[in-house]
Every structure is written in structure tokens, then in C-alpha cells.
Amino acid sequence: MQETKIRAAALGTLLAAEAMNVLDATITQVAGPAIHAELGGAASDIQWFGAAYTLPFAMLLITGGRLGDLLGRRRVFLAGVAVFALASLGCALAPDTGVLIGARAVQGLASALVIPQTIGLIKAMYTGPALSAALGWNGPVVGLSAVSGPLLGALLTDLVSWRAAFLVNVPISLAILAARRLLPEDRAANPVRLDVPGTLLASLGVGLLVYPLIDRWDWTLFTGGAAVLVMFGFHQRRRRNPLVEPSLFGHRGFPSALVTSTLFFAVMNGVMLVVVLHQQLDEGLGVLASGLTLLPWSGGLAVSSWLAGQWLVPRYGPRVAFAGLTLLLAGILLAMAGPLPLALGIGGLGLGLFTVPFFTTALSVVRPHETGSAAGLLNAVQQLGTTLGIAVLGTVFLRGHSLIQALVPAAALVLATMVTTALMRPAKTTARATV
């Protein structure tokens, strides 16, 4: 009984760290204009408040997982939490936007150390049915944290200050570090060596792609980023121990899933940002009021996720994903006509209907030895999609201060997501990999 309680407390510690890191990816979406009003700087800094976090988070997730294999997952997890606490304190005390954006980047790096270790440590603590039950908490915690970020940011900014949205991470991090003795140490039996050149090439390539989308439409930098990513691809083909399993790309289903995830999360997070910017900059609403505007979006996601998992997906399978994208597109088009709460509610229902069958379908083509690499890639492109959504939709809005103009590319991205989703073929066998 005592051991069961210790494991439950350890699981709670890991999930608290995961929630804190995922929540911070979206916490500045509502607080961004208030931060900019106090610290000043360029209008594009509002986008960098989020992108500076999600970009290193995305690019270093797989490397963070490899560090856990090499050095021990508990050790890397605790180091990541400690760095995250210090970076959060730096955000809270930032005197200008440059310092804040730099501290946000360090937060993203720390998150890339923390998140990959959680599943490995859970597997080290549990086996059999208990392991499935423990891992079952992962999805709800991540989903709820992602959609709660803007609302929590709005509440703290309105009631205290935007600085409190970062300062709250410090006591949570200290509590997690205080519970370190609950966590077991674990590392891979045959760890793969780090691919430092590959990590640098991937980070540089994506950085060169994203930077001009936010600050200036510089096609020279954009083309350079694409060229660096091509170099990264050739580098991975020559590596004995590449960052990702090459066999994952032997079937079109998984590459299509990566593109689908990137597009979908670009829409999900980009729309949240432009709605908040519209409410604050165009409609003159306060931070809390604009945050509450997103309640139908997050509420619809919560309701439809439950319906999809409990009833719709077991009965109708992957077809539910297309129904979700259709509702999401309908919500975006309706938002162009004016009734924003209803539109966001419909769009939110679409989000939940899509996410539940998507991950099952994405992993259905993955073999057991590829599961870890596949999970890391899916997590990475989620954050990359978030970054791209903030960059593209945010830039379109800030240039014209028109919600309709910003939602046009969002609708186009949903249509593209429908195409890539159609290219994802579910496994022919009944056995499916899970994360």
C-alpha cells in the first residue's frame, strides 16, 4: 500500500511538471498585448513571446530524450525543472522585451529536457495494466493544459500582473524538485549517441524558416532555411545513429501524419492568438474579457474529446477526424461573419473530434521499435506547428488588423489538413501502437 502511494505521488509530480511546461506554451497568447504595452518594442514581439518558447521546445525535444537515455532520465528531468524555474524568474523580472524573449527561449530549452523524460519515468515505475492506467493520464493533462494556458494567463494578468503568469512557475518547480526522492533513476540499456551536428542543422534550418515569417518576409532567409533542412536530410541518411528512425519514412502514412499535425496545431494556436489580438486591439476588451472569449473554444474541445473517445471513434473510427475538420472549417468561416462565441464553440467541437482519432491513426503504422522516435517527432511538430501558426496568422493580423484577413489562411490550412489526413492510412492489423 505504501509503495502504491509513493508511485501515485511520483506520477502526480511528473504530471505537474508536464502540465506546467505545456501550459507555458500558450500562456502569453492573452497576456501578450499587456506585456507589449508595458515593455514596448516592435509589434512582432507579441508573436515572439510565444514563438521564442515553442521553437527551441520543438527542435530540442528529441535531443532531450537522447540526453535522458545517456545521463539518466531522473537527472535530466530535475535539471530541466531547475532551469525552467530560473528562466521563469527571469521572465517575471524582465526589464525589456529582449530579456523576456531570451528567457522564454531558455524556458523552451528546459521544457525540451523535461517533457521527454516523463513517459520513460512512468514506464520505469509501472508495468502491465497499471502502466496503461498511468499513461492514460498523459493525454487529458496535456490537452487541458494547452487550452487552459490562455485563460490562466488572462486571470493572473488581470488580477495581479503579467509577471505573475511566469512567477507562479517558481513555487511549482520548487515543489517538484522537493519531491525528487520519489522518482526512480532510469536510463536506456544501449543508449544512442547524441547527433550534435544534426541537432544544430535542424535548429538552424527551422529558425531561418520561422524568423522571416515573424519579423520580415525575407525570402533569402527563408530559402536558406529550406537549404539547411535539405542538408539535414542528407546528414541523417549518412548517420549510423540519426536523430529519428529512417524507417518511419518508408510508408507515406507517418510523414503525412507529421505534416497533418503541423498544419492542425498551426490553425489551433494561430486562431487563438488572432482572436485575442482582435478582441484587445480592435474591440478594446481587457485581458480577462478577451481570455474568457476563448471559453467556447476550449469547452467545445473538452466536450467533443470525451464524446469522441467514449463513443464516436470506437463506432466510426478515423472518419471522425474528417467530421472534426469539417466543423473546424465551419467555425472559422462563421467567425468571418461575426458571431464569434458560436463560431468558436463549433470550431472547438471540431478540435476535439479531430485530435482523438488522429493520434491513433498516426501511430497505427508505427512498429514497436519506432514508437519512441515517432512520439518525439509528433510532439516536436506540434510545437513547430504552434510556432508557425503564431508566425503566419499573427503577422497577417498585425499587418492589417483584420480578423477576416487572418482567418482566410487559417481556413486554407484546414483544407490542406483534410488532404494530408486522407493520405494517412490506418494499419490493416488490429494491433496499434500507443504512446
How does this model look, in words?
There is one protein chain. With 435 residues, the protein is an all-alpha fold. 79% of the residues lie in helices and 0% in strands. The longest helix has 30 residues, at 253-282. The chain is globular. It starts with a helix and ends in a 13-residue tail after the last helix.
List the helices and strands and how they pair.
Blueprint: H1 2-23, H2 28-39, H3 45-71, H4 73-92, H5 97-125, H6 128-135, H7 138-159, H8 164-167, H9 169-178, H10 196-214, H11 219-238, H12 253-282, H13 287-292, H14 295-316, H15 319-337, H16 340-363, H17 371-400, H18 403-422
Q: Main β-sheet: number of strands, strand sense, barrel status?
A: none
Mean pLDDT: 85
Helix/strand/pairing category: mainly alpha
Low-confidence stretches: 429-435
Number of helices: 18
Quick one: how many beta strands?
Answer: 0
- Shape field: globular
Helical residue percent band:
over 70%
N→C terminal distance? 27 Å
Radius of gyration: 21 Å
Strand content: under 5%
SSE ordering: HHHHHHHHHHHHHHHHHH
Short description:
The protein has helices at residues 2-23, 28-39, 45-71, 73-92, 97-125, 128-135, 138-159, 164-167, 169-178, 196-214, 219-238, 253-282, 287-292, 295-316, 319-337, 340-363, 371-400, 403-422.
